[in-house]
Amino acid sequence: MIKFFLLMNKQGQIRLSRYYESMEILKRTLLESDVIKKCLSRTKGQCSFVEYKDFKLVYRQYAALFVVIGIDDAENELAVYELIHNFVEVLDKYFRRACELDIMFNLDKVHVILDEMILNGRVAETNKSRILAPLLALDKMSEN
Questions:
Q1: pTM higher than 0.85, yes or no?
Q2: Could you give the dihedral angle defined by the CA atoms of residues 114, 18, 92 and 79, in that order, rounded to the nearest 10 degrees?
Q3: Which of 21, 30, 83, 91 is paired with 123 by a 20 to 30 Å CA distance?
Q4: Closest by Cα among 82, 83, 102 to 92
Q5: What is the DSSP letter of 76?
Q6: In angstroms, rounded to a whole number, what is the distance separating the alpha carbons of residues 141 and 22?
Q7: Phi, psi (rounded to 5 degrees) for 94
Q8: For every one of its 144 residues, what pLDDT tens digit does the chain have, with 9 covering 90 and above?
């Protein structure tokens, strides 16, 4: 099961966070600071799977952004690694070369994309067209 999804920049600022298990705010803050330290301190040559407390971190870097997903032992690391890439491809398709500013100024749309892909800590959809369909429908309605 996916425990959390974080999107952060190279400076360690969290741009998006979604938790699929209930957690106190203080624990979230401590977890995020630990995850930031763990992932940002690693070199490009190191593995993208990190053992952390009672779960694993799977992360990928895209330019100045890091996508980090916390998973339990039952989840497949490679599938989650590909899920991260699929998420970024969907963002690129919707925003036409997504960047950090697109995410910051359209956070609601990024949340819709993430919610279409992951539901209650489980992967719900990976098809890019199906993921974007509700968002494109909302865009079309707002134009009229």
A1: yes
A2: -70
A3: 30
A4: 102
A5: -
A6: 34
A7: -75, -45
A8: 999 999 999 999 999 999 999 999 999 999 999 999 998 898 888 999 999 888 999 999 998 899 999 999 999 999 999 999 999 999 999 999 888 888 899 999 999 999 999 999 999 999 999 999 999 999 999 887
